[in-house]
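Input chain follows. Return structure tokens only.
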Amino acid sequence: MEKDQVVDSLLLAIEDARMRYHRIALLVGIAGSGKTSALQAVHSYSNAPIHNVGVELSRLMLELSEKERSIGLSRLFLDAMASPGADVVLLDRIEFLFHPRLQANPLELLKALGKTTVVVASWPGHTEGPYLAYSKPSHPEHKRYDIGDLVIVETESRQS
């Protein structure tokens, strides 16, 4: 899918997500598929705040022990990604949330943030039928999540 098409699809997905229980729109694609540039374009159209999740959370966790990191991740994530006054927030580079030592469920973190704002996040992976996958099936951190009522925009056509 061309960048302009992805951006247009994301802008429509934001409106669709506003009407859902989980106000989440995920931009799904593999590394290098244009997720970051699409989010930056949406940011320029909408002025919605954009966060680099990996950079922001790792900076906040530097002083914490491993146990404190996993226990406090949810609160840190919600506090760091909350953007008072914004009805949409854009999240990029969420791979950090999948780190095994954090023992986190990235999708549940996004859903928690989606209770107060529309969340548009770049998801590093692909869809597998009714599931959202993180990483390739051969990767040791491969996980699948039920798509449920989430709005999905894929950066490229799935190949059989």
